[in-house]
């Protein structure tokens, strides 16, 4: 077998670091919940996040070079850019988790839209329960789900009214064109 290209090895290493960092953050959170010291894990996590940042920067540089020198097609460049973007999103999520912040809603929404299973990304059903829902009872969870659904419905209503307005404008433009013709 021929050796794997450097960028593929770098990508796999970055995915592995992201996975290990997520596990260390979960372990640190368990320690904190149990009142144990997590200083050593914090140092390891900080180092891993820096390593992940460096690897993603290298991947971005390699990709930019490959696209600009036409070593790869534009379509392949776009595919690889999506992989790097996913890695950058994962890095931001890990950074937020490390700082005990929840991921931004945009990050959550974008992860919903990526679809499919990707190498190096953990199955979300196997992760521990989030801090946001931990300790909530069934009724509290149901109420939280209703609130989220209401927010989504409000967003869909706004989108619907925008699309409806654009449809109306399109029809009016079409009528005006017919009249002018």
TrEMBL record:
Keywords attached to this entry: Coiled coil
Ranges for domain T-SNARE coiled-coil homology: 146-181
SUPFAM superfamilies in the record: SNARE fusion complex
Source species of the chain: Lophotis ruficrista
Protein name as it appears in the record: STX8 protein
UniProt keyword Hydrolase present: no
InterPro entries, alphabetized: T_SNARE_dom
Domain of life: Eukaryota
Keyword Repeat in record: no
Organism placement in taxonomy: Eukaryota, Metazoa, Chordata, Craniata, Vertebrata
């Amino acid at each position: 077998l021929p050796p794997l290209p450097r960028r593929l090895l770098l990508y796999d290493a970055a995915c592995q670091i992201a996975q290990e960092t997520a596990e260390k953050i979960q372990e640190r959170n368990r320690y904190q919940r149990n009142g144990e010291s997590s200083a050593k894990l914090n140092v390891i996590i900080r180092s891993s996040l820096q390593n992940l940042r460096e690897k993603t920067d290298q991947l971005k540089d390699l990709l930019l070079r490959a696209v600009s020198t036409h070593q790869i097609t534009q379509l392949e460049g776009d595919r690889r850019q999506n992989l790097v973007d996913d890695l950058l999103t994962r890095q931001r999520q890990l950074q937020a988790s490390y700082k005990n912040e929840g991921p931004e809603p945009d990050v959550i929404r974008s992860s919903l839209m990526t679809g499919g299973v990707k190498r190096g990304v953990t199955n979300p059903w196997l992760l521990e329960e989030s801090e946001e829902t931990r300790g909530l009872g069934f009724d509290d969870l149901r109420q939280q789900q209703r609130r989220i659904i209401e927010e989504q419905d409000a967003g869909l209503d706004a989108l619907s009214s925008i699309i409806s307005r654009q449809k109306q404008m399109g029809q009016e433009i079409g009528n005006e064109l017919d009249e002018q013709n």
